[in-house]
Amino acid sequence: MSVDLGARPWDQLFARHVAGDTGDQITAILNQSGATDAITLSGGFPHPETFPTQAIAESFPRVLEQSVALQYSPTAGLPGLRDWFAGWLGAQEGVRPAENELCITSGGMEGIGLISRCVLDPGDRVVVEGPTFFGALVGFQRTMTQVEAVPVDDDGLDVSALERLLATSSGPVPKIVYVIPDFQNPSGLSMSVERRHALVALARRHGILIVEDVAYRELGFDGERRPSLWALGPDVVAQVGTFAKTFAPGIRMGWVAAPAELVGQLLRAKQNTDQCTGALGQLLLEDYGRSGRFDQGIAFSRKFYRERRDIMVDALRTHLPEDMTFTRPLGGFFSWITAPAHLDTVALQKQALDEKVTYVPGAAFYPDGRGQNQLRLAYSRVPDEKITEGVRKLASVLTRAGGA
After folding, report:
1. Which residues contact 119 (CB under 8 A, 6 or more apart)?
2. Is the dihedral angle over the CA atoms 160, 163, 168, 174 positive or is it negative?
3. CB burial readout 39-56, b (16+ within 10 A) else e
4. Which ranges carry the Aminotransferase class I/classII large domain (predicted)?
5. What average pLDDT does the structure give for the chain?
6. Confidence class of residue 191 from pLDDT cuts 50, 70 and 90?
7. Distance in angstroms (rounded) separating the CA atoms of residues 313 and 332
């Protein structure tokens, strides 16, 4: 039921940043996730088989004995969880954050939002990868910043193109460069070691904060672990992570590891948003982590998703028209398709849905209208036997649209 506000229309009441952002794409994906009559290649959801259901059930009695379990927690996170996770990061990355350089968040998206809130003013410049995660784009758009995209290739963000942008631009130096260096959403590509070093050096020269999103970092398939940007430049990098892929997305938790000055501001901002991340989830994660099963779960997830990646890549090789390309990710959840320039993947969504298959159009991953002939596919949650069928149906739609 629509309610009349009176003399002022609703669209005049809403803030200016609401108009034109891409938040509807997230809503659409979440809505599609519950569809039972379509093969949903759109949503990058973790698979329930990777959730540590039994471990959490065993942890509950131990956790509930602690008085803090159902109480407010410190804004930075419970000391026990932060101590365990700081040690885990130190073992993985070779750098352990100090106590005032780490905060626990209510998911990775909150980390991005808090950084945006603390760093960006309307009119500031932000550089992202083109394409990039549309959830981050929404966050930056809602701060009314100027968002510019630098292209990616097989070696990740083109740092030379970023350097040229900085050299030729007459505007203020960007405050933030947002990157997903490992198994990127949406392309599945990763940044080379050489470019990681170059990006950190560039950020130091220009005084730019790198926001490193490591949502998929632990889900590599080939055993290679490239140095994180945060480990290379903890003075100029804020690492934003999520436990959605390594623990459970329903327990909303993530982290930010960053210079103490920035973390202090993030905590002030968090006190005026959700105040603190839920203590119950923090205690469950700490118990899981200290049991040793956190690393075991990651190892299982890597194998699980690698098998699904292989099924999708084989299906794309078999069914995709020859004049289209796709990425073969070395980790993560996604493959990225590029079709001939005349094909409009936004317009083809309805035809695909008529065939009972969904995807995300490429334009959602750019701040400037590019990507009309591209699309993202996710293999993470679709049943094995449905991945090939979904790709075959989608290829049929693309072929009929003139892709072959």
Report:
1. 175, 176, 209, 262
2. positive
3. bbbbbbbbbeebbbeebb
4. 46-394
5. 93
6. very high
7. 13
- Burial profile 240-262: b = 16 or more Cβ within 10 angstroms, e = fewer: bbbbbbbbbeebbbbbbbbbeeb
Spell out the alpha helix ranges (H) of 33-103: 53-64, 79-93
Q: Which of 304, 310, 306, 320 is nearest to 391 (CA)?
A: 320
* Structural domains in the chain, sorted by start: 14-51+296-403 (3.90.1150.10), 54-294 (3.40.640.10)
Q: Let me know: does 21 contact 138? Beta carbons within 8 Å.
A: yes
Beta bridge partners of 150: 129
CB 102 within 8 A of CB 85: yes
Tell me the CA distances in angstroms from 207 to 9, 147, 173, 240, one per residue in order.
Answer: 43, 18, 8, 19
Within 13 Å and on the Cβ side, how many CA atoms surround 49? 12
The per-residue pLDDT for range 118-137, each reduced to its tens digit, is 999 999 999 999 999 999 99
CA dihedral 348, 354, 359, 363 (to 10 degrees): 20
Range list of H helices, 176-319:
193-206, 229-232, 260-270, 279-290, 293-319
Nearest-CA neighbor of 391 among 367, 355, 365? Answer: 355
Query: What is the predicted pLDDT for the residue at 250?
Result: 96
Element spanning 349, H or E: helix 349-354
| Pairing, β 209-213 against β 176-179 | parallel
In this predicted structure, the answer to whether residue 30 has a pLDDT above a threshold of 50 is no
- The strand pairing partners of 376, in sequence order, are 336, 360
**10 Å Cβ neighbour count for 4?**
8
CA atoms of 181 and 8, how far apart (whole Å): 45
Q: What are phi and psi of 213, to 5 degrees?
A: -95, 115
> Which residues are within 8 A (CB) of 267 and not within 5 positions of it... i.e. 6 or more apart?
75, 76, 103
Burial 314-329 (b: 16+ CB within 10 A, else e): ebbeebbbeebebbeb
**Rounded distance, CA 334 to CA 330, Å?**
10
Q: What whole-number distance in Å separates Cα of residue 367 and Cα of residue 379?
A: 25
Give the integer Cα–Cα distance in Å for 129 and 367.
Answer: 10
